[in-house]
């Protein structure tokens, strides 16, 4: 029995044993919260690093999640990542791209060139071309979840912060569409009809867009009657997003693309600023904590050994090409070289977005995904821990972090 099979059996057990599932959720919350607060208090690193460390510890002791995601792990990941993507989509103004074509060119160049370079390097490691293309697409997105969470936690504001959110949102959009096109092409190549495959793709994309529009419309109507900063209203918004995600999973459309498109529609069809409690309040915050713990535990020593140098080569190629494209186009995108370097560093993480895409590919095309699993999971295991630190360093390099609070001097006791 392989480590992936054993992990799948663990999660299948959680699905039929509510008490075990409840113990898992409680354990994840306690471990993640304790380690996150300890890291933040002692090192001034983002709490996300502590959440990931808790997941790494679980994986090291053989209690990591199985792939593809199932049961409690899939539910938590869908909800938490969906909330983050919807929240980030609501902060991205696409008209910025029309006013700044250099920024649009930067987004396309860094995503496309890094994918091509990764596919080429994977071929040098004698990886099959289909697996190489799959690795390239899965490595394309820089996760909006990590960039958004770290920026919000640290109170970062400025050009690099806003551009990082925009580029990561667009990266996710490109990657999900590219993965859908890849699966459509291979379905036709395996003996299916290209016409039928394209028709199915069109229906899937239109269904996703329709569900996104319904969610955006429901949130807009709720905002006309309620103060979104109120805790009760935030809970209603949480319920709307969660219901849409459950519907997306039931219908079979992307749980990544749908909430991101809904947020983009909501932000770009109205001039109204959308403000609500971070992650929609306490419930969303707990889900986000569990998300990073789960992603941090999605590996085994056997997978790290199998991924090996191919994963390290993927990471190096991905960073260098993204950085080269962003820095080269920095003057056209109206930023300084220093800001361009900082922005390229914020694109370093590889996290939950790639994990969910890999899980979907494993479920739909298990034979094709088998070669990509160790490479992508090893890459995620490395960058899930160091990615948030890189984002914090980049925001500090750009000068967009608020100054640390000054400690008040102690008053001497009167004699």
Automatic annotation (TrEMBL):
**Membrane topology according to the record:** Multi-pass membrane protein
- The main location class comes to membrane
**What protein does this entry describe?**
Cation:proton antiporter
Cellular localization per UniProt: Membrane
Q: Where is the Cation/H+ exchanger transmembrane domain?
A: 33-394
Q: Name one Pfam family in it.
A: Na_H_Exchanger
Q: Which organism is the protein's source?
A: Pelomonas caseinilytica
Q: Which domain of life is it from?
A: Bacteria
């Amino acid at each position: 029995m392989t480590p992936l099979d054993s992990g799948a059996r663990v999660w299948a057990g959680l699905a039929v044993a509510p008490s075990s599932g409840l113990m898992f959720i409680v354990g994840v919350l306690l471990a993640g919260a304790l380690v996150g607060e300890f890291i933040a208090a002692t090192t001034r690193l983002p709490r996300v690093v502590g959440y990931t460390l808790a997941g790494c510890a679980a994986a090291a002791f053989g209690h990591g999640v199985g792939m593809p995601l199932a049961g409690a792990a899939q539910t938590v990941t869908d909800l938490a990542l969906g909330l983050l993507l919807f929240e980030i989509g609501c902060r991205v103004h696409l008209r910025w791209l029309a006013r700044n074509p250099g920024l649009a060119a930067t987004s396309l160049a860094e995503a496309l060139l890094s994918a091509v370079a990764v596919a080429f390097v994977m071929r040098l490691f004698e990886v099959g071309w289909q697996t190489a293309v799959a690795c390239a697409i899965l490595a394309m997105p820089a996760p909006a979840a990590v960039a958004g969470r770290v920026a919000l936690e640290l109170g970062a504001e400025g050009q690099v912060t806003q551009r990082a959110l925009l580029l990561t949102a667009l990266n996710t959009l490109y990657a999900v569409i590219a993965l859908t096109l890849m699966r459509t092409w291979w379905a036709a190549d395996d003996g299916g009809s290209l016409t039928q495959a394209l028709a199915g793709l069109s229906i899937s994309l239109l269904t996703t867009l329709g569900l996104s529009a319904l969610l955006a419309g429901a949130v807009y109507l709720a905002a006309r009657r309620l103060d979104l900063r109120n805790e009760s209203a935030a809970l209603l918004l949480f319920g709307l997003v969660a219901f849409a995600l459950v519907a997306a999973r039931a219908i079979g459309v992307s749980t990544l693309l749908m909430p991101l498109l809904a947020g983009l529609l909501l932000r770009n069809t109205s001039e109204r600023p959308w403000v609500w409690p971070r992650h929609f309040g306490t419930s969303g915050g707990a889900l986000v904590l569990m998300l990073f713990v789960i992603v941090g535990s999605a590996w085994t020593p056997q997978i790290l050994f199998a991924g090996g140098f191919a994963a390290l080569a993927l990471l190096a190629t991905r960073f260098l090409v993204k950085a080269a494209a962003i820095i080269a186009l920095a003057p056209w995108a109206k930023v300084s070289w220093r800001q361009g370097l900082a922005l390229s560093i914020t694109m370093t993480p590889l996290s939950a977005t790639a994990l969910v895409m890999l899980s979907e590919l494993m479920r739909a095309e298990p034979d094709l995904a088998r070669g990509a699993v160790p490479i992508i999971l090893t890459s995620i295991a490395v960058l899930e821990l160091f990615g948030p630190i890189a984002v914090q360093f980049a925001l500090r390099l750009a000068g967009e972090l608020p100054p640390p609070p000054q400690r008040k001097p102690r008053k001497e006791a009167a004699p």
